[in-house]
Amino acid sequence: MKKIVTSVVIICLLAAPAFSQTIFSDETKKYIEYNSPVTVLKNGLLIDGKGNAAKPHQTVIISNGKIDWVGDDEKAISSKDAAIIDLNGKAIMPGLVMLHEHMYISAPDISTRYLHLKQLPFTFPRLYLAAGATTIRTCGSVEPYSDLRIKKDIDLGVLLGPNMELTAPYIEGKTSRFPQMNENKTPADAAVFVNYWADQGFTSFKAYMGVDKPTLKAAIDAAHKKGLKITGHLDIVTYKEAASLGMDNLEHGFMASTDYAVGKKENEPPAAGTSYKALSNLDN
Questions:
Q1: Measuring CA to CA, which residue among 62, 56, 54, 53 is closest to residue 44?
Q2: By the 8 A CB rule, do 165 and 195 touch?
Q3: pTM of the prediction?
Q4: Ramachandran class of 72: left when φ > 0, alpha when ψ lies in -120 to 50, beta otherwise
Q5: I need a labelling partner for 90 at 20 to 30 A (CA). Which of 136, 196, 207, 232 fits?
Q6: Could you write out the three-class secondary structure of the chain?
Q7: pLDDT digits (tens, 9 = 90+) for 26-79
Q8: What mean pLDDT is predicted for residues 124-142?
């Protein structure tokens, strides 16, 4: 894994404008092999991320943390003091920007089916980077102060990890399935909740399954007043209802949509064992 992380972090950190100014911890330094004013990646298979065919024998020149030139190996001109990295047999591609990520893993008690989520602040940032994700958006937090600290420590060079955009703790309704989620009893509670976490530095929000229409509307309005976006993993509120309230985004596709649950009542979850209309009848 160390070799995988090393190859990714070179690209990630060299792409950061402040790379040469960051004071990296001894732990982070383990994964940095190049930190020169000019770095040349040559003889690589270039995947540009725009849908074009991959190009062999390509060079990327990075100057002071920014990509300065891209083209054929034979046309590349670099300074004498540049660090040269021969990528023969390897590919170059943009870092992945992932938009639905977490710093936790599910850890329920199986015998009682008691739901629980376990934060993994050291392991997950490194794994995301090892998988090629150089920027991530967390999409719901269960340990918000931990998420803030992870981002801070990565930005300072204390920990290894991708650039992070943080989504606030889940906006739940009157009753939560997870003990780590706050229960908003009223729409006013949801507005206060959004304003508080926006002030702490979170840049987006996510509503969860137990939220009803009045509570979701209050959360959407509060987020928009702050100039921030809100998404959701819904259940009580249908996708059509959420869109009409001004929701910016929805997560998990049709899996979380209750629009076509037979007998679905407004501001209530589908009854246990509810059937759904067939895809051929979605417009009926």
A1: 56
A2: no
A3: 0.86
A4: beta
A5: 136
A6: CHHHHHHHHHHHHHCCCCHHHCCCCHHHHCCCCCCCCEEEEEEEEECCCCCCCCEEEEEEEEECCEEEEEEEHHHCCCCCCCEEEECCCCEECCCEEEEEECCEEECCECCCCECCEEECCCHHHHHHHHCCEEEEEECCECCHHHHHHHHHHHHHCCCCCCEEECECECECCCCCCCCCCCCCCCHHHHHHHHHHHHHCCCCEEEECCCCCHHHHHHHHHHHHHCCCEEEECCCCCCHHHHHHHCCCCCCCHHHHCCCCECCCCCCCCCCCCCCECCHHHCCC
A7: 999 999 888 889 999 999 999 999 999 999 999 999 998 889 999 999 999 988
A8: 96
> Could you report the per-residue pLDDT of 212-258, keeping only the tens digit for each?
999 999 999 999 999 999 999 999 999 999 999 999 999 999 889 99
Place of tokens 């206060």: 192
Query: Which residues, in sequence order, are CB contacts of 188 under 8 Å at separation 6+?
Result: 218
Distance separating alpha carbons of residues 234 and 43, to the nearest angstrom: 48
Whether 221 contacts 247, CB under 8 Å = no
Walk me through the domains of the chain, giving residue ranges and CATH numbers. 2-92 (2.30.40), 96-281 (3.20.20.140)
- Residues 118 and 95: their CA atoms lie apart, in Å, by 27
